[in-house]
Design goal:
alpha+beta; single chain; 46% helix; 13 strands; Alpha-Beta Plaits; five-stranded mixed β-sheet; 520 residues; 3 domains; 20 helices
């Protein structure tokens, strides 16, 4: 356990400090001048407590549900404790201890390799309350952060990140667009605290909240528990994965990377620690020249922030235009491998943005997920149709429509549609308990669910409606309209299909699907 703990929670090695880093340690300890942030009101503390998710507790075993009962019985006394913390600029030491839990990544690495695990820190519930209160008391820390960061940011998501990447390829006036996908080695665990503090100070962090941040980083411990054995280690760097404040601190650390003075025709998109650089040019030489200049700036940023980029795990791909030979992209002295497809935020992206491979990949994952129901349901026994339908929506549909807004326009292509329907077929056989000889078109009708490609299109359009609808009534009306549109497309396909004609005669006498979508 000790070796795993040492690998997952690296130490802040002062021996790595350069002449640039040494004075930063001293400067980071100095509290900025200015006016203290006002302590949170009872209403704000109550709002934070009410929003607490019922997740795993810390080492003391106190859950969010217990705290909510305490709040109902003694709200004023509870709020006063948190108000005093903000007033005095302190973060209680007893709230800093965390329990380290490791989750297997399933990345093919042997279980003896620490990189085969993802560390998650279970923190005490009182610390989880105080952390968001710090953020609420210091809105300056997050107000001016770059729009290029799409994770841990209100109004941003995986969809917005992918749209930013794809829009450059689709709308660029240049002949070629090159994507460079950069990997930051063990990013969250290597976040350097003095740099986070300095950047928080530059962002206008109030003095008392800054003192809380300094105190937050002092005497932190993480422990690994196995039976009656526990191994403790001092935490000296990193953003705890599982904390509320950690993602905000990471965005503060990353902000100036997203504001680098990149060459013209070069942009950057970040989702957490996933960084994508997009280079536009009219010639191969231009792609190489601009990439070299951009990566030089990125590399220098990494040195200043004591974060390492891994050229071996980074990759590059041309997503607009065709080149006889891919451009040579170098990060320092190392060449970045050129690829024709890759997985970006769980979406398989190819050089032509066809999403055919993504349809195969996401369809197989969805089918495998729902296919596990075959262990508890078969033709003549097991889970009934109504319950299977709920599981189908929660597993297959939710998986296959993941970020549908970014690729639904390709769902109508024959190769994409065929891949989706092919992976939907076994799920529908399990749902309907039909014979394997039943046609794919007929299975969807029997199950009362949309064909997978139409499900993707509907999910994407409904997502857009949720973003644009101003009121619940408008959203409800738009949903009905979209349901009618999906039904019309399905009806047209069912009318012209050459399969399942026996079933066609029994659907309303004239092949009508009216009511099927409502049952879906």
């Amino acid at each position: 356990m000790t070796n795993l703990l040492e690998a997952l929670c690296p130490d802040d090695d002062t021996g790595r400090d350069t002449l640039y880093h040494r004075p930063m340690r001293v400067t980071a300890a100095l509290t900025p001048t200015g006016e203290d942030a006002r302590p949170p009101t009872v209403e704000i503390v109550g709002a934070v407590i009410r929003d607490l998710p019922n997740t795993a507790p810390g080492i003391d075993g106190i859950t969010a549900r217990i705290i909510k009962h305490v709040w109902a019985a003694a709200s004023d006394e509870t709020a006063e404790g948190f108000r005093r913390c903000v007033q005095e600029g302190s973060f209680p030491s007893t709230w800093k201890d965390g329990r380290l839990v490791v989750l297997p990544k399933r990345n093919g690495k042997p279980l003896t390799d620490p990189k085969a695990y993802r560390p998650v820190t279970l923190l005490l519930i009182f610390g989880k309350i105080l952390e968001p209160l710090m953020i609420r008391c210091a809105p300056q820390m997050t107000k001016g952060l770059s729009d290029c960061q799409h994770e841990f940011t209100r109004g941003r998501s995986t969809v917005s990140a992918l749209r930013s990447i794809f829009s450059v390829a689709r709308e660029s006036s240049s002949k070629y667009v090159q994507n460079i996908f950069l990997d930051i080695s063990v990013a969250f665990d290597n976040a350097w605290w003095p740099m986070i503090l300095l950047k928080s100070k530059r962002g206008g962090c109030p003095p008392n909240i800054y003192r809380m941040l300094v105190d937050y980083f002092i005497d932190r411990r993480v422990g690994m528990f196995m039976g009656h054995t526990v191994v403790w280690k001092a935490a000296t760097m990193g953003c705890p994965q599982g904390s509320v404040l950690g993602p905000t601190l990471w965005n503060v650390l990353m902000d100036d990377l997203l504001r680098l003075p990149l060459p013209g025709g070069v942009s950057i998109v970040a989702f957490g620690d996933d960084v994508t650089i997009l280079v536009e040019s009219g010639a191969r030489a231009g792609l190489e020249e601009k990439s070299k200049a951009a990566l030089k700036l990125v590399g220098e940023w990494g040195e200043r922030n004591r974060l390492e980029f891994s050229p071996a795990k980074s990759s590059t791909m041309t997503i607009r235009g065709k080149l006889q030979r891919p451009p040579t992209i170098r990060f320092r002295s190392n060449s970045i491998r050129s690829i024709t497809s890759t997985k970006v935020l769980e979406v398989v992206v190819d050089s032509s943005l066809s999403f055919a491979q993504h349809a195969v990949d996401i369809g197989e994952r969805a089918a495998n997920c729902f296919g596990k129901m075959s262990r508890v349901s078969a033709c003549s026994w097991g889970i009934k149709y109504r319950d299977l339908k709920i599981l189908y929506k929660g597993t297959f549909v939710s998986t296959v429509t993941y970020v549908a807004a970014c690729w639904y326009e390709r769902a109508s292509l024959h190769v994409v549609r065929s891949a989706l329907l092919r992976t939907q077929r076994p799920a529908l056989i399990l749902l309907t308990k039909a014979y394997r000889s039943t046609s794919t078109d007929g299975l969807a009708v029997l199950a009362g669910v949309l064909p997978a490609d139409l499900e993707v299109i509907r999910a994407a359009r409904l997502g857009a409606l949720r973003e644009s609808a101003a009121t619940k009534e408008e959203l409800r009306s738009a949903k009905l309209s979209e349901a009618e549109s999906a039904l019309a497309a399905w009806q047209k396909r069912w009318d012209t299909s050459i399969h399942g004609r026996e079933l066609y005669l029994f659907t309303g006498g004239e092949g009508s699907l009216q009511g099927n979508l409502g049952r879906a």
